[in-house]
Amino acid sequence: MNESDKVDHYVNLLRQLLNDTPNRSNVAEILVLQNAIQKLAQELLNNDVKEALSRDSSIWLLCHYSIFQHYKCLLQGCTSFPVLRKNIRRNYEKCLKSATKFYQLFIQTLIKQFDLFIDVSWLHERFLKQLRLRTDPEIYSSLFEETDKEHVLNCVYRCLICLGDTARYFVMCSHKDSTFRQALRSYFMAHLLFPENGYHKNQMAILYTYQNNDLETLYWLACSSSSFVPMSGAQSNLTKKLSSMQKKLKQMQKVNFSRIVALLFLLCRSNFAALQQSIYESAAFCHIKQNENFTSRELFMFTTLVVCLHHLKFFPWDGFITRYLKWLISESINVFDMVLKEVAPLKFVKIVAPALYAALRYVSSLGVMDTFLDKSTFHSLFSRISKLVKLFDTGLELISLTREDSRLRVWYFTTIIPKSNCRLPNSKQIPLTDFSHLRYYRPSLTLLLKYNEH
């Protein structure tokens, strides 16, 4: 019996064991079978790469996911028996730790066998650093020539998702880390591989659902639904989430538009005390000036959320996207003026610029820039951007404002452009202007300056 047949045999034994023990945890047998399947899968990877790659999904579904669901059912059924529940939780954690080690080793084995990132050295360096894995080019085998590179990368991607899901289950079981840091780290590494895929974004939304963070949840669901490869079910989840907010959204239509933005934004932040107080505020942007908790990250996510919802035709009233983006451009000009007059600190520019870029990038992709930027507004906006760049000499401060938390890099904002190859994702050359001395930079402000030249 070869490794592949042995895997099938042990999976069948595990399935039978889980079906035969719905009310008690036979942890010894479950863990033995899990470890046996994992060991065989690892041996299969060493001996028959193609067969191993074809089984990575089935190992998760038939082995690990089945075991995790089994333990979740056991925990739900013994809420009145604390001693038994504690014992089951301890055994559940053992299975989760074993699965974590398996996927880490599986990924590291693939990376050692294949030079997956030779074409993008910056990704290679960052990815290996995240995995805490040191490699030597001499250890790469000739298997890469025989196996489809995309297939291997997809396998690594799926394993990273499994690794993130396992970390999420562990937090829910142990309650030791409410921030889900390890799960976020795995999903972000999956994002480094395939930013156009919506699967990991949907999983990110699930994490923030547990933390009752509506803005993050809506943001990642919208990104997942709008991705080039959308996650099945993400749009349905987005619809459910929005429907719970529909009543309050309709009430907002009767309010001044700038207040609508403030209300909707604060509603997404689940800050209902501030939501009630904001009714008496004269403008939405006052929250940037008065609320220290208002961040660049939040406004950027909110703007991207608005863009995604417009793309998916989700908004409950017509013309919201036009009014919101015009409002954002107008308020950005006001903020730039305050900074140039030294009435406000530079951090105000850092708050608004990433969101402004998200808005302009979207309307540019639709080919409707003129709808949002007439000649007068166009001149006002970009003359201020040019002044800001000159005022801060090299523009380093302005570029740094677009360096968001690495966990929040979304679909079309993922490119890090090296000095030696200064191109946008669409391969159009970008003028370096004042940023030519920088080793790495993000295209945000540079793209705005490109519009200014034309």
UniProtKB/TrEMBL annotation:
Domain of life: Eukaryota
Telomerase activating protein Est1-like N-terminal domain segment(s): 57-173
Gene3D superfamilies to which the protein is assigned, alphabetical: Tetratricopeptide repeat domain
InterPro entries named in the record: DNA/RNA-bd_Est1-type (IPR018834), Est1-like_N (IPR019458), Est1/Ebs1-like (IPR045153), TPR-like_helical_dom_sf (IPR011990)
All copies of domain DNA/RNA-binding, residue ranges: 183-441
Name of the protein: Telomerase regulator Est1
Organism field: Schizosaccharomyces japonicus (strain yFS275 / FY16936) (Fission yeast)
Lineage of the species this protein comes from: Eukaryota, Fungi, Dikarya, Ascomycota, Taphrinomycotina
Underlying gene: est1
